[in-house]
Amino acid sequence: MKNLKLSLAALGVSALSLFAFKNADDGSIKGTVSPADAATKAWVISNSDTVQANISQGTFEVKNLKAGTYNLIIEAKAPYKSIGKEGITVADTPVDVGEIKLVQ
């Protein structure tokens, strides 16, 4: 009986601990690109991570980022040039970088 109580207590503590910690990778970087059909991918780069997302209809969101500072690169289609933005700080909420205009 004592073992059963200990097992149930351990199971309860384990179940509660699953909900006690917030996901550490829930930051994101989002924005828009114009012209909408001129870019293909958005890349975010940090000292320890490189993550990418497709650009669809001129919008992008790179998800599941750890807290930290990232550089953003928008990969453009010719004749447009790829463009970057440095020093984007990510925490636990989405960071909107706004509209990024590509040039030829």
Q: Low-confidence parts lasting 5 or more residues at pLDDT below 50? A: 4-23
Mean pLDDT: 84
Based on secondary structure, the structural category is alpha+beta
User: Biggest sheet, strands in spatial order?
Assistant: 3-2-5-6
Which band does the percent of strand residues land in? over 45%
Tally of individual helices: 1
**CATH H-level name... which superfamily?**
Immunoglobulins
CATH class: Mainly Beta
Second-tier CATH architecture: Sandwich
By CATH, the topology is Immunoglobulin-like
Number of strands: 7
Radius of gyration (CA) equals 20 Å
Please give the share of residues in helix. 10-25%
Overall number of structural domains: 1
Written as H for each helix and E for each strand, in order along the chain, the element string is HEEEEEEE
> In angstroms, what separates the terminal alpha carbons?
76 Å
Shape: elongated
Largest sheet composition: 4 strands, antiparallel
Ordered list of secondary-structure elements with their pairings:
Elements: H1 2-20, E1 27-34, E2 39-45, E3 50-54, E4 59-65, E5 68-76, E6 83-90, E7 94-101
Structure, explained:
The protein is of the alpha+beta class and 104 residues long. It has one domain (23-101): Sandwich (Immunoglobulin-like), CATH 2.60.40. The chain is built from 1 helix and 7 strands. It has one helix at residues 2-20, and strands at 27-34, 39-45, 50-54, 59-65, 68-76, 83-90, 94-101. The chain has a 4-stranded antiparallel sheet with strand order 3-2-5-6, with no helix packed on it. A 3-stranded mixed sheet has the order 4-1-7, with no helix packed on it.
